[in-house]
Structures are given as C-alpha cells and as structure tokens.
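hey so i finally got around to running the thing on that chain from the lab meeting. sorry it took forever, my laptop kept dying and i had to restart like 3 times. anyway pasting the input first so we r on the same page abt which one it is
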Amino acid sequence: MEFWKINGNGNDFITIETLACPMKTEELSALARRLCRRRASIGADGLLVVEPSAGANFKMRLFNADGSEGEMCGNGARCIARFAYERGIAPAEMTFETLAGTMRATVEGRFVEIDLGEYSFADGWADRELSMDGAAFRSSFLWVGVPHLVLFGRDDLSRDDKVRIGRAFRNSLDLFPQGTNVSFARPVDRHEVEAVTYERGVEDLTDSCGTGCTAVALASSLLFGMGSPIEVHNPGGTNRISFERTDELSFRARLGGNTSVVTKGEVGPDA
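ok and heres what got predicted. didnt touch it at all, straight out
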C-alpha cells in the first residue's frame, strides 16, 4: 500500500487513496491504530483516506491515532487537498466531502486554504467561566466541524498542566457528551494569538490543530474585538484564519497555512 506522509504545521498524517478498492470502516480504523504508532510504525496524529464521491472531487475520511473516526480536521483537510491535487485526483480549486459537510479548498504550492463555511456560537457559548483542578478560565465553545473548547486567562500552565486539564475537560461528558478538543489560547496583539490544542482522538497536545486555530480566532474576535485575518501561532507553525461576521454570534471562516510532504513510500508488512 502506497502512502504519503504530510503535515500541516507539524500536525502529521499518513495519507492514502482507496479510489479503486474501498476499504471497510473497521479495516481503516484498525489500519490507523497500527500505522499511527510512533516508533513502532510510521507514526502520525491520524490517517487520511481519499475515497470516491458522487457529488465532489473526492471524499475525505479521517481516522485518529486511536482508531476513532473524526468528523473533520482543518490541517488534515489542507493536507489531503494537496495530496489530491499533486496526485491528479482533483484540480487546484476543489471540493470534497467530509462528515462535517462539503469543503472547498485552493492549493497554491505548499499553501492550502480551506473555506470552512459558517459557524455559530449559538450552539455552544460565547463567554463562560469554567474551572478545572483549581484553575479558572474564560471560555468559549463551538463546533468547527468538531467540538472545540477555547480557554483564556492562564498563561502560567506547564505542558503537563495543559495535558491534565485538557484531558479532564475532554472527558467531561456532562458538559460535552461527545467529548471535545481543548485549546489553550493567549492573545498577542490585534491580529495574533498563541495557542496549543489537546486533541480528542490523539489524546495529547499536538503541534498544530487547524479547526482549533479557527475556534481560537473566532473566540478571540468575539471576546476581544480582534479583526480578520488572525494569525494563530501553534508550536508547529502558524495558521491564518480569515473571517467575516454574519450576525452577532456567527462567522464565515477560511483556514490557510503551509503543508509539507515529508516522505512517500510503501507500508511494510511488519508495520
């Protein structure tokens, strides 16, 4: 099986296509668990799969490192768009299906921008105080294809603190019945924010999270009056979120950033 290893600002994925020979969901889930093991296999945050689509250029499937299937992933969407373009599966301006709806992408060399569509805080909340393990936060919660909790107000947390608190919120099923991703954010100026995300399914902090960057940017605009575009600096690099406000609690957003094709190869039988 041929694969490409691609990352979006350090958020890394094993990417394959099954256009001629689709695989069952349980097979892809098991494959993700095997291939995403770091040190023991290829290693990645997740597995991206290109499948046939009747209404778009292709269908995107995302399986996290633990084998769970995700609805959407911003950096993953950017990576799979570059893969599809360079493999001749789709043109530079393309559409593809996801479990969160149809996405539009534009590929310009390494830079890929995704039109994420419209999102609203009305289905979550814009500004609420939350506490966990003695730490208080100003928070926002919304769905950006997947659920995202954004936390502001604590710049003194260590990596271990963020993992512990992120895991605790992720598993707070009374608040988040389907679990949630958790982003820790700090505004830098009117157009820049620093953030890191604890990702559901990866169950750890990741170097970058595209939908997390989008949630952080929209929450920062709502809470602090920050304007478009906003650059969100993750440990692995920077994503640019451009947006327009469509009503008091809703935005239309685009996510852009660089992608890197790290390697191409074949999966070995021992992997």
